[in-house]
C-alpha cells in the first residue's frame, strides 16, 4: 500500500459550527481495508476515514481540524494503516476559509430579435423550418421557456429562477393568464425574481440617455405595477458595452444592483481572452458609479453569462457537481466576498437538469462551500452582509465599459441614424406637446407612449447594433419609422395648437418658429410655404427684413408661387418658445445658391476653409479666424473619405458584424470637381468625386452667424462587399486627448488603431459617441516650475492605485474625476495593472498612485530615480513622466503595464487633491532638474458633431476617424426566416447597404477645454433644429414672441419636458393633470443652482426620482423653481403651473392604430411592442388553429385578461356566413386589475372545404377594436400556408423632383372567409419624410372570401430632392398572424 497523492481543498464537512477541512488522499495497493488520518503540530483528524484500497487506486476525503488562522500553511503527515502495514506521506496544507457560498442563478438570456424574428423567438420558433439550423436542442421560444421554468418550479420546491424582459413578459401575461396565479405566488414566495427593471437589454451607448430612462420607466412600470414584482437588479447580461451614465440613472430609478457579462475587458472577458482570470484588475463585485456620483453594486460575470451551463453538458450528477466545483474554484479567485455568482443559463434555454440536484446533493455532502439555487437579490444581500461583517471595502469603479464590439457602431448604419432621428423628433414633439398643455391642450399620452416603446424596443442590443439578420432589419425599420412619424405628428399638432394661441395676424404668410431647447438661440432654419404670390421676402416680428435663400420654387401656370422652400437665419428665438416670422409679397423670390468662380475656399466670421480638388475635394485647411489657429496638421485633411477593405469574419472570434475588421489602411477618392457657391446666408463648397463604385457629393457650408463647419455627404452607388467607409480629420492639437460625449456628460477615451490588419492585431478600439467626439482635455495636471511657469498635461482615462488601506477618500476622488470626465479603474498596489490590450477593452493614459507608502509608488520611484521620491517628500505630490511619448507607446496590441509606461502622479493628501480636481486642474510642483511632460496640452479643443454616426476613433497621431458605412457579409448577413429570401434590388444583402446614404456632421472648435468651447450646447443646437412651419394667420392672445419654459443658467441643459407621470407604462389610466415633469442635467461636472420658469409661473415644485415618484419639495422663488445640482447631476422635477389652463382643444394627434381591428398577437406580425395604449386589456382565442370535428363542431376558449386597470365590456364573436354558435357562456366581463375571464365556445361550421376565420373582439378605452382569431380548417389542408396572395410590380420607379409615382400592391384572399390586415411599406431611413416620402407607412385592408383588391403606395419627391439618389421599397403584408414580404423595388430620383 502506498499514498500516491495528498491534496488540500477548500471543502469542509461536518457542520457550520464544527467544520472539518477536507484533505483528499489518494492510495493504491493490494486489496485491503485502511484507516487514514492527518496529523501535525496544529492539525488533527476527529474521525479517521476507513477505505478499501484497490490496485487501481482510491481517493478518500479526510476531514481535519486546524488550530491555526485561515491562510496559514502547515506541514502535515498523512497516515494510512491496514493490517500489518503503516505508510505515511508529508504534505504542506493551507488552512482554507469557511463561509463560502456559490449562488446558482437559473436564467435564460432572451433576444426578442436577432438572427431570428420577433415571432420566432416569442412563439413560433419550432414551426419555422428556416430557423431550425441555428437552434440548439435546449433552446425554445419565449412562451415555451416561461412555461417550462414555471413547470420546473411547480415540480421542484428548490427551483428558483429569474424573468426579465417585457418583450416576452407582456405577451406571455396576456396570452396565458392561467399562469398568472402561480407566477405571482412564486414572486411572493421568493422563488422568482423579476430582474432588469428595464424593458429589455438595451445598448445604452448607442441611444439617447432619455431612451435609457424610458427603458427603466417601462421595465419597472410593467414588472412592478402589472406583474407584482419588485425589480431591484439591472440584468444586462449581453449588452455590448454600457453608457457611463447607466448605473447612476438606474440608481435614480430605485434599482440597487446590476449584473452583466461584457464591459471592462474585451467581449468575453479577461479569463476567456487570456486564460487567466487573475488578469482582472478588480473583483467581480464592485460599486459601479456614474459621473453623477451615484451607482450600483455590480456583479461582473467573469466567465460570461453561460458559465454555469457547463453543468448541463455533463452526463451524470457527479460530473455536474465536479463542473460546478470547477467553476467555483475559478470564480472565487476574483470574488469580493465569500460569495460567488454562477449564472446557470444560456440563450433561450430550458431549465437546468442538475442545478437543484446539486443544491441538494452537494450540501448533503459538504458544509462549505455551499452551492445554493438562489436569486440575484439573495446573492447581493449576501455580498453586502459579508462585506459589512468582515469590514471588506467594496471596490469603486468608474471605468468606461467600452468598447465592446466595435462593429456595432456602424453595421447597418441606418439603424443608428434612424434611432437618433426618431429620438430627436420624439423628444421635440414631447416638449412641444408639453408647451401646448400649458395652454390647455390635452397631452397626447398614447401617441408618445407608442413612440417611446418603439424606441426602447429598437434599442435592444441585437437591434440597433446592426447584428441582426436581413429580415429582422426590415422589421425594425418599421418600428423606427413609426416612432419618427408619431413624434412628427405630435410635433406638428403641438405647433398648430401653440400657433392658435399666438398672435400670427398680419400680411402675408405666418411662419411659426419653435425652439425646443432651454436657452434663447439663433439658428438656420428652413420652411416650405404656399404664398400664392409672385415673389416673397421674409421679415421678423418687428417687420425688419431677414436674409433668406430660396431652395426650391414651384409655380402655378399663372406664374404665382404654388410652393416655395426658404432657408433663413432666425434670431433670438426664446427658450422653449416661439417667434413668428412672416413671408410677404415681393417682386421676386430671395436668391438661391449661385456659383462663384474662385479658388475653392470660403469663410465666415468664425472659420475659413479650403478644399483640395486633387484629394477628393476634402478640406485641406480649416482655420479658426478668432484665434488664427490652423486646425489641421501640414498635409492633413478634414472630412476626407477613405474606404478600407475588411475581413468578412473576425479571424479569431468570427462574428463579422460585431467587429470592425480592416485589412489595413484605406484609400481615398481621386480628383474632384469643386465649386464655390454663395448666398445671402453664407458660402459653401460642393465637391463631387468617385471612390470605387461610390459617387460622392460633399457639401461644406459656412453659415453667417453659426459657429461651426457643416458638412453634408451624399454617398450614392455601392460600397461593395466587406468594406468600411470612414471620414478622417487630421487635427493638429498636440497634447490633447480623445474626448467623447456620453449620456449627460463627456469622458476621456483611449487612442486606437484604425489602420491595423485585424488578422494581425485584433482591436481597433473604436468607441461610440453620443453627439460629438474630439480632442480636448477632460482634466489637467498643471506642472508648476520653481519660477512659476505652468505647463498643462491632459488626462482622460486613469488607473487609480489604491492605498494599502483604502477608505472613503478613494470613492470621493474617483467620483470627482468622473464628474470631470476622467474615468478610473481602481486597483490594488500589488495587483495586476490596467493597460494591456490582450485583455483590457481600453487603455489608460495616466496612473494616479495614492499614498507615498504605496508599494507601487516604490516601484515607480525605483524606476525613475531618487529625485522623484525627494520631490514627493518635499511637496506631497510628484509627476513622473513616461519614458516614451504616447505616439511611441500607443501601438497595436500595446502593453502599458510597466511602472514607466504611463505618466504617474503620486499623491499623499488625497482629500486635498480631490478638492482641487473639482475645478478640473491639479497643481503639481516640478523642481528644477526633473522632467515634466513631453506632451504639453494646448488650451484648445476641436470636435466632430455627428448625426447618428456614433463610431469614432482617434489614432495616436491625432487623426479622428468617423465611421460612416460598412458592408459586412459575415453571418447573419443575408439570413431570412419567412418565405422566399428578399434582397436589395441589385441582389445584395440589405446588410451591404447598396443605396443612397446621407451623412451630416460638423466641426466645432474653440479655446479652452470642451466646456469652455461650448461643445454641449453646440451639439444640442446641431441635433435639435428649430421647428418651423407655415401656420394660419390669427389674432391669438399671446404675443408673437414668447418663452413658455426657461432654464437658467443656460449651461444647464433640459433633456425632457413632459406631462407628469408614466401611467401607460403601468397599464393605468392617463388621468387629466396640470403637473409637468422637467428633467435637467449639469454637463460640465461643476455644481450649479438652476432655476426653472413656466409661462404663468410655478406654483409648487418637487425633485423626484427618475420614475417621477418619490420626491422632496423644492423652493419656489418669484414663480421659479430652484434646484441645486451636483457635479454631472441629473435632476427630475415635478412642477405645478401657477395658472391652471382650461383647455378647449380636443385631441391634436390621433390615438388609434391605423389598422383596425388590432390583432392582439401583434408579435406574430413582427411589429415590435404592443399596440397603441399598451393593451391594458386583451382578448385571445385558444387554440389559434384547429380542425373542424367530424361532428361539424369546433371548440375553443376565448380569454379576456386585464393588466393595470379595471376592464368591463362584452366579447363580440364574428363568424363567417353559414357558421353559428352552438354553445357559449355569457360573453360579458367585469375584471379587476390582473384578473381574467375564460369562456368556452362551441361553433358549428359548414361542410365546404377551406379555411375559416372566427374572431373574438372587444373594445378598449382608446376607441380601438381588439381582435384575435381562430383559423378552422375544413377538409384537407391547402397547398401553402399563406392567407393572402401578394404581388407587386418589380420595375424600378423613377421620380423627378416635385413629382410622384405609385407602387400598386395587389392582394387576393386565399381563405373562405373575410381577412383583415395591414399593408406596411418598408423603405430605408431617408425616405420617410422630407425630400422623399414613400408611404403611407401602413394601411388597412379587408378582403371578402375569394376577394381581390389593390393598395397604392405613393412615392413623393420634394422639389428639393436630389437627382441621382436611389433607394428601394418593399411591402410587408400582415393578417391574422401571417406575414408576406414582396421583393424590393428600386426607387430613383431623376432629372
UniProtKB/TrEMBL annotation:
Keyword line: Glycosidase, Hydrolase, Metal-binding
UniProt-recorded name of the protein: Glycoside hydrolase family 38 central domain-containing protein
Similarity field: Belongs to the glycosyl hydrolase 38 family.
InterPro entries: A-galactase_NEW3, Gal_mutarotase_sf_dom, GH38_C, Glyco_hydro/deAcase_b/a-brl, Glyco_hydro_38_C, Glyco_hydro_38_cen, Glyco_hydro_38_cen_sf, Glyco_hydro_38_N
Any one GO MF annotation of this record: carbohydrate binding
Organism whose genome encodes this protein: Amycolatopsis vastitatis
UniProt-listed PANTHER family: ALPHA-MANNOSIDASE 2C1
Domain Glycoside hydrolase family 38 central: 410-480
Upper taxonomic lineage: Bacteria, Bacillati, Actinomycetota, Actinomycetes, Pseudonocardiales
Biological process annotations from GO: mannose metabolic process; oligosaccharide catabolic process
Highest rank taxon of the organism: Bacteria
Amino acid at each position: 500500500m502506498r499514498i500516491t497523492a495528498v491534496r488540500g481543498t477548500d471543502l469542509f464537512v461536518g457542520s457550520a459550527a464544527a467544520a472539518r477541512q477536507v484533505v483528499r488522499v489518494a492510495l493504491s495497493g493490494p486489496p485491503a481495508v485502511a484507516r487514514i488520518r492527518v496529523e501535525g503540530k496544529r492539525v488533527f483528524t476527529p474521525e479517521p476515514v476507513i477505505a478499501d484500497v484497490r490496485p487501481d487506486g482510491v481517493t478518500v476525503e479526510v476531514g481535519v481540524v486546524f488550530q491555526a488562522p485561515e491562510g496559514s500553511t502547515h506541514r502535515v503527515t498523512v497516515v494510512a494503516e491496514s493490517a500489518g502495514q503503516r505508510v505515511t506521506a508529508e504534505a504542506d496544507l493551507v488552512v482554507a476559509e469557511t463561509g463560502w457560498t456559490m449562488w446558482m442563478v437559473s436564467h435564460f438570456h432572451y433576444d426578442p430579435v436577432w438572427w431570428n424574428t420577433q415571432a420566432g423567438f416569442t412563439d413560433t420558433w419550432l414551426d419555422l423550418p428556416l430557423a431550425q439550423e441555428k437552434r440548439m436542442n435546449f433552446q425554445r421560444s419565449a412562451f415555451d421557456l416561461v412555461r417550462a421554468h414555471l413547470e420546473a418550479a411547480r415540480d421542484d420546491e428548490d427551483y428558483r429562477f429569474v424573468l426579465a424582459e417585457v418583450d416576452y413578459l407582456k405577451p406571455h401575461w396576456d396570452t396565458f393568464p392561467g399562469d398568472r396565479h402561480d407566477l405571482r405566488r412564486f414572486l411572493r414566495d421568493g422563488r422568482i425574481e423579476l430582474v432588469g427593471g428595464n424593458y429589455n437589454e438595451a445598448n445604452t451607448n448607442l441611444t439617447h440617455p432619455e431612451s435609457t430612462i424610458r427603458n427603466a420607466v417601462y421595465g419597472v412600470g410593467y414588472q412592478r405595477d402589472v406583474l407584482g414584482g419588485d425589480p431591484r437588479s439591472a440584468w444586462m447580461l449581453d449588452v455590448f458595452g454600457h453608457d457611463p451614465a447607466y448605473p447612476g440613472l438606474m440608481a435614480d430609478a430605485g434599482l440597487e444592483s446590476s449584473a452583466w457579462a461584457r464591459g471592462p475587458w474585451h467581449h468575453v472577458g479577461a479569463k476567456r481572452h487570456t486564460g487567466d482570470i487573475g488578469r482582472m484588475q478588480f473583483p467581480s463585485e464592485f460599486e459601479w458609479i456614474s459621473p453623477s456620483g451615484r451607482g450600483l453594486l455590480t456583479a461582473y460575470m467573469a466567465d460570461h453569462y453561460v458559465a454555469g451551463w457547463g453543468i448541463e453538458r455533463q452526463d451524470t450528477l457527479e460530473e455536474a457537481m465536479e463542473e460546478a466545483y470547477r467553476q467555483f474554484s475559478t470564480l472565487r479567485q476574483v470574488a469580493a466576498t465569500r460569495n460567488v455568482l454562477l449564472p446557470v443559463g444560456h440563450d433561450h434555454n430550458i431549465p437546468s437538469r442538475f442545478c437543484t440536484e446539486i443544491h441538494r446533493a452537494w450540501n448533503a455532502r459538504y458544509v462549505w462551500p455551499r452551492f445554493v439555487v438562489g436569486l440575484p437579490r439573495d446573492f447581493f444581500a449576501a455580498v453586502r452582509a459579508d462585506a459589512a461583517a468582515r469590514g471588506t471595502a467594496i471596490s469603486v469603479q468608474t471605468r468606461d465599459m467600452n468598447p465592446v464590439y466595435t462593429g456595432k457602431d456602424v453595421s447597418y448604419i441606418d439603424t443608428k441614424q434612424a434611432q437618433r432621428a426618431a429620438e430627436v423628433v420624439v423628444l421635440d414633439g414631447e416638449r412641444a406637446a408639453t408647451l401646448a398643455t400649458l395652454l390647455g391642450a390635452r397631452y397626447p399620452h398614447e401617441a408618445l407612449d407608442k413612440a417611446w416603446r418603439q424606441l426602447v424596443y429598437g434599442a435592444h442590443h441585437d437591434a440597433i447594433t446592426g447584428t441582426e439578420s436581413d429580415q429582422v432589419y426590415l422589421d425594425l425599420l418599421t418600428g423606427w419609422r413609426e416612432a419618427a412619424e408619431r413624434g412628427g405628428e405630435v410635433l406638428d399638432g403641438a405647433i398648430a395648437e401653440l400657433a392658435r394661441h399666438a398672435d400670427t395676424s398680419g400680411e402675408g404668410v405666418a411662419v411659426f418658429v419653435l425652439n425646443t431647447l432651454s436657452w434663447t438661440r439663433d439658428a438656420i432654419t428652413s420652411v416650405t410655404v404656399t404664398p400664392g404670390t409672385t415673389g416673397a421676402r421674409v421679415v421678423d416680428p418687428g417687420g425688419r427684413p431677414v436674409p433668406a435663400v430660396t431652395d426650391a420654387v414651384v409655380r402655378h401656370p399663372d406664374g404665382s408661387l404654388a410652393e416655395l422652400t426658404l432657408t433663413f437665419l432666425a434670431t433670438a428665438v426664446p427658450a422653449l418658445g416661439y417667434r413668428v416670422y412672416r413671408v410677404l409679397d415681393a417682386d421676386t423670390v430671395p436668391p438661391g445658391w449661385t456659383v462663384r468662380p474662385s479658388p475653392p475656399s470660403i469663410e465666415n466670421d468664425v472659420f475659413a476653409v479650403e478644399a483640395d480638388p486633387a484629394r477628393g475635394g476634402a478640406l485641406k485647411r480649416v482655420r479658426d479666424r478668432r484665434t488664427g489657429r490652423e486646425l489641421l496638421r501640414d498635409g492633413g485633411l478634414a472630412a476626407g473619405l477613405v474606404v478600407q477593405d475588411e475581413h468578412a469574419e473576425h479571424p479569431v472570434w468570427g462574428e463579422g458584424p460585431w467587429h470592425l475588421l480592416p485589412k489595413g489602411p484605406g484609400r481615398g477618392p481621386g480628383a474632384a470637381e469643386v465649386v464655390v457657391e454663395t448666398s445671402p446666408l453664407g458660402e459653401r463648397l460642393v465637391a463631387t468625386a468617385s471612390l470605387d463604385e461610390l459617387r460622392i457629393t460633399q457639401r461644406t457650408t459656412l453659415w453667417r452667424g453659426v459657429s461651426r463647419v457643416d458638412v453634408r455627404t451624399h454617398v450614392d452607388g455601392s460600397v461593395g462587399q466587406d468594406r468600411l467607409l470612414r471620414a478622417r480629420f487630421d487635427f493638429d492639437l498636440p497634447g490633447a486627448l480623445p474626448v467623447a460625449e456620453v449620456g449627460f456628460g463627456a469622458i476621456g477615451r483611449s487612442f486606437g488603431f484604425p489602420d491595423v490588419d485585424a488578422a494581425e492585431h485584433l482591436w481597433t478600439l473604436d468607441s461610440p459617441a453620443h453627439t460629438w467626439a474630439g480632442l480636448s482635455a477632460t482634466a489637467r495636471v498643471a506642472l508648476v516650475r520653481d519660477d512659476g511657469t505652468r505647463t498643462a498635461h491632459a488626462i482622460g482615462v486613469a488607473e487609480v492605485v489604491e492605498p494599502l488601506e483604502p477608505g472613503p477618500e478613494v470613492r470621493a476622488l474617483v467620483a470627482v474625476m468622473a464628474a470631470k470626465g476622467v474615468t478610473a479603474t481602481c486597483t490594488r498596489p500589488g495587483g495586476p495593472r490596467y493597460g494591456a490590450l490582450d485583455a483590457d477593452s481600453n487603455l489608460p493614459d495616466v496612473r494616479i498612485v495614492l499614498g507615498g507608502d504605496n508599494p507601487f509608488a516604490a516601484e515607480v520611484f525605483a524606476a525613475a530615480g531618487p529625485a522623484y521620491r525627494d520631490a514627493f517628500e518635499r511637496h506631497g505630490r510628484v509627476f513622473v513622466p513616461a519614458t516614451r511619448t504616447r505616439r511611441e507607446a500607443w501601438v497595436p496590441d500595446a502593453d502599458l503595464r510597466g511602472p514607466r509606461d504611463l505618466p504617474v502622479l503620486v499623491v499623499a493628501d488625497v482629500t486635498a487633491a480631490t478638492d482641487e480636481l473639482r475645478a478640473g486642474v491639479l497643481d503639481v510642483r516640478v523642481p528644477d532638474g526633473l522632467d515634466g511632460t513631453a506632451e504639453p496640452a494646448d488650451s484648445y479643443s476641436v470636435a466632430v458633431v455627428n448625426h447618428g454616426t456614433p463610431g469614432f476613433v482617434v489614432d495616436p497621431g491625432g487623426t479622428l476617424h468617423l465611421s460612416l458605412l460598412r458592408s459586412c457579409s459575415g453571418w447573419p448577413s443575408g439570413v431570412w426566416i419567412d418565405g422566399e429570401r428578399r434582397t436589395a434590388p441589385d441582389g445584395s444583402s440589405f446588410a451591404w447597404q447598396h443605396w443612397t446614404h446621407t451623412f451630416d456632421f460638423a466641426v466645432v472648435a474653440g479655446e479652452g477645454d470642451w466646456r469652455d468651447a461650448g461643445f454641449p450646447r453646440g451639439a444640442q443646437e446641431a441635433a435639435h433644429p428649430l421647428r418651423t412651419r407655415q401656420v394660419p394667420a390669427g389674432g391669438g392672445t399671446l404675443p408673437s414672441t414668447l418663452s413658455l419654459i426657461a432654464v437658467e443658467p443656460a449651461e444647464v441643459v433640459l433633456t425632457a419636458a413632459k406631462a407628469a407621470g408614466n401611467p401607460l407604462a403601468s397599464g393605468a389610466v392617463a388621468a387629466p393633470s396640470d403637473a409637468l415633469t422637467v428633467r435637467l442635467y449639469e454637463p460640465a461636472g461643476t455644481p450649479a443652482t438652476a432655476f426653472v420658469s413656466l409661462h404663468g409661473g410655478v406654483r409648487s415644485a418637487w425633485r423626484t426620482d427618475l420614475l417621477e415618484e418619490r420626491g422632496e419639495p423644492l423652493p419656489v422663488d418669484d414663480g421659479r423653481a430652484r434646484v441645486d445640482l451636483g457635479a454631472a447631476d441629473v435632476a427630475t422635477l415635478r412642477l405645478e403651473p401657477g395658472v391652471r389652463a382650461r383647455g378647449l382643444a380636443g385631441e391634436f394627434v390621433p390615438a388609434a392604430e391605423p389598422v383596425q381591428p388590432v390583432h392582439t398577437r401583434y408579435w406574430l406580425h413582427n411589429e415590435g411592442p404592443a399596440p397603441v395604449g399598451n393593451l391594458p386589456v386583451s382578448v385571445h382565442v385558444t387554440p389559434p388553429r384547429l380542425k373542424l370535428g367530424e361532428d361539424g363542431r369546433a371548440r375553443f376558449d376565448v380569454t379576456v385578461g386585464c393588466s393595470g386597470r379595471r376592464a368591463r365590456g362584452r366579447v363580440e364573436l364574428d363568424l363567417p356566413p353559414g357558421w353559428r354558435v352552438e354553445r357559449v357562456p355569457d360573453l360579458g366581463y367585469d375584471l379587476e386589475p390582473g384578473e381574467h375571464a375564460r369562456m368556452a365556445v362551441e361553433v358549428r361550421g359548414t361542410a365546404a372545404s377551406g379555411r375559416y376565420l372566427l374572431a373574438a373582439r372587444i373594445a378598449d378605452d382608446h376607441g380601438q377594436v381588439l381582435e384575435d382569431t381562430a383559423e378552422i380548417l375544413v377538409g384537407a389542408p391547402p397547398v401553402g400556408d399563406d392567407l393572402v396572395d401578394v404581388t407587386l410590380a418589380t420595375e424600378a420607379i423613377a421620380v423627378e423632383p416635385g413629382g410622384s409615382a405609385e407602387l400598386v400592391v395587389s392582394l387576393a384572399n386565399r381563405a373562405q372567409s373575410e381577412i383583415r390586415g395591414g399593408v406596411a411599406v418598408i423603405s430605408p431611413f431617408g425616405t420617410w419624410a422630407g425630400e422623399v416620402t414613400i408611404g403611407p407607412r401602413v394601411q388597412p385592408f379587408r378582403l371578402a372570401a375569394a376577394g381581390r383588391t389593390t393598395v397604392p403606395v405613393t412615392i413623393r419627391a420634394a422639389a428639393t430632392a436630389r437627382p441621382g439618389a436611389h433607394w428601394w421599397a418593399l411591402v410587408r403584408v400582415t393578417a391574422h398572424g401571417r406575414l408576406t414580404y414582396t421583393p424590393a423595388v428600386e426607387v430613383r430620383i431623376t432629372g
